[in-house]
Amino acid sequence: MTPGSARISRRALLAAGVGTAAAPLLGACGGVSTNGAGDDENAVVLMSNQFSPVEEKQRFEKILSDRVTGERVAFNQIDPGVFSSTFQAQVDSGNVRISAVGALHGDLAPHASRLIDLDDVLAALGDRGFDADLTDLAKLGGDATKYIPWMQASYVLAVHKKALQWLPSGTDVQQMTYDQLLSWMTAARAGNGGTPVFGIPAGVKGLYHRFFQGFLLPSFTGGQITTFRSPEAVTAWQYMKELWAQSAPASTTYDNMQEPLQRGEVLVGFDHVARLVAAPRDNPGDWMMVPAPSGPKGLGYMLVLAGLGIPRGAPQQAPAKDVIKQLTGPQVQLDVLRQNAFFPVTNAKIPADLPAEVAMAEAAVRQQRQAPNAILSLPPVGLGARDGEVAQLFKNCFKEICLDGKPIPQVLDAQAGQLNRIMDELKVPCWQPDPAAAACRAA
């Protein structure tokens, strides 16, 4: 099996609890330390490209401090674009100063040979309830476990109930189609004096490219890469152009949606759940979170799966294994759910007293995942440092089609050419929802 070729069944996600995870060069390991690690050379240095927003990072540091016992942990959060090069440079040079890494499946996949085998750790966690399909994915195409599943997340819509007054008759906000969403947002803009109520995180640090990769295109085309410039993709982008016409122009300044939602600048917003949960926190009774819409092919949604691994040649390997075991424990899994809205990958029992905003997100993610027409999508797998380049191609499509008004087929052909040049250089297999293939490229 090749990296990224493992296929995740819906059964895996249903068994995994609630779940369908968001994301400085490490020099002398100078990062944030917890548990009093400081510059202690015996500390477990955990390098991760997750929890990049300051508030998420601080909350996770508090979880580490409160829950991880027996080991001192130095948590180093670095930019996703630097993660791969830092990891590779340290392992390949034999000068490894990090004890463990925490990153998305797609970030770890290119480094399978740089990660030690963790079959012993997985065997010791038999009570955690990891589904076999998730642990198969953690083998990164080989026979041995290369990372332990850590947490997972997805993206949904946050809706202020004020917007429901414009919901067209017969539309179920919990089971919308993309056409119904467009009709709703068109009516809402008209009813709101011409001011749009819909927004996406299209700022410099926004995750709007994930909307195109994991939701819009799979829902309209059934794929992400292989269908990049198909006739169905043209239809999808024509739809996006029409939806953008009913969206808040200030969306191009939004790095996350919870802040403009809190301020009332928009009433409906799409984003990663961790970047939405603050919006309903003060007045949860005024809010809903709902699944993404369905398109002609089904309800495309993105599973964001993160894992914990240990680099080859890493110091403090035994303590690092202990830290990984503790981070998959039920209390830590639930703390991360409560604090940062990243969902368990274990059988940790979901409590009834979740904060209202987290409970909303959990319900929306669960309903999205369990939809009979669900199409599971993964973030790009195996791109490493090139992931940012591929993300930019999807962003370019949005800019040129929705902002600049260029012809859709022309834009898709040009961007597909650049996409194929990258994919031909990397020679990586396709990932879901595209069909498994030895080398992935746009048709």
Automatic annotation (TrEMBL):
Signal peptide (from-to):
1-27
Matching Pfam families: SBP_bac_1
Which keywords fit this entry according to its UniProt record? Cell membrane, Lipoprotein, Membrane, Palmitate, Signal
Alphabetized PROSITE patterns for the sequence: PROKAR_LIPOPROTEIN, TAT
Q: Which domain of life is it from?
A: Bacteria
* UniProt protein name: ABC transporter substrate-binding protein
The organism of origin for this protein: Mangrovihabitans endophyticus
